[in-house]
Amino acid sequence: MASFFTSIFLLLLRSLFAAALYPTQQIYQFPNGTFVENLAVRSDGSILVTILSAPELYLIQPSSTHPNPQLIHRFDGSTSVLGITETAPDSFQVGVTNVSGLAAVPGTSSLWTVTFPRRNTAARNEAKISLTTKLPGVLTPNGLVTLNDHKSLLADSSKGVVFAIDIGTGASNAAITDALFAPTASFPLGVNGLKLRGRTLYFTSSAQALFGKVEIDLETGAARGPASVIAHTLPFGAGYDDFALSNTGDAAFLANSAGNLIERVDLRSGRQSIVAGSVNSTAIASPTSAKFGRFGREDVLYVTTGGGLFSPFNRGIVVGGQLVAVKLGQ
Asked: Percent of the chain beyond pLDDT 70?
C-alpha cells in the first residue's frame, strides 16, 4: 500500500514539473545567516529589500554588473524589518519589530516612512526616514499593502489579524479577522502576504498553508464577507510566505518557502504549477516574497529568500539570503 501511494505522489510531482521551469539568475547573495524578508521595486527599477535577521533596509541595483547592496537605514533598537509597501511615488511604509526566532516581542512594533527624492540628482538614493506610528497592539508587522492615499493594511501574522493604519494620523484598528487568517498550534504565523486588486484582497496564510481572497471596503479596509480559499500549498512543506500578482491580473506567483519553489496559481480556477525552483536546490533557497520588475523589466519576477535559516536543507545546509530574478519572459 505504501508503494502505491509513493507511486501516486511521484506521478503528481512529474505532472507539476511537466512544464519547463523558467530560468533564474542570482542577483545578489548576502552572507550566511542573513534572512531577506521582503522587497519593493522602485520606479527606476532599483529594489529595496528588508532584512529579518537584522534591523536593516538595503537598496540593490539589479541591472548593475556589481549589484552590491547599499544600506539605506539601520533601525537601531529593533531586530527585524519585515513588510514594505509603496504608498506614493518613491515613498514607502516599512514594518519594524523585535523577534526571537519566530516569536514576536510584544510592544516593540512600529511603522516607518522611507521617502526618496523625486528628482534625478546625486542624492536620489538618500532617503528621509521618519516614524509613522508606534504599533503597541501589533505583534508581527508582516505583509503590507496600500489601501488608498491615506491608509495601509498590515498583516499581523502572530495575531492572525489585518490592521488598517492611517499613515497621516497614525491611528490603527483591527480591520479584518477571519478563521483563515489564524495561526495554529503547530505554527505561530497565520496571515502573511497581502495584495489588493480592485476590491479583492488576496492573502496567504502560512500556518494554514493556503492562498485566499476576501472582498473589502476600499475606504476602511473592512471585509464585505467571509474569506475563501483559492489554493492550498503544494505538498512540499509548511506553507506560503508572500507573493506577487501578475500584471495581467490572471495569476499569482507565490513563495513556497519550505519547498524552495515559486508556484503560479490561476486566480479563477485555482490551478497550480511550479515555475521556478526545486525542493533539493538552493537556487531559490526558502523564498520569502516576490515582486515584478519595473522600468522595462515587467516580465522579471524578483524573489527574496531566507537561505534556509529556519528550515535548513539536506544535512543542515544554510546559505545566505538572496535576491533572485525569475525570467518569465524567456
From this structure: 91
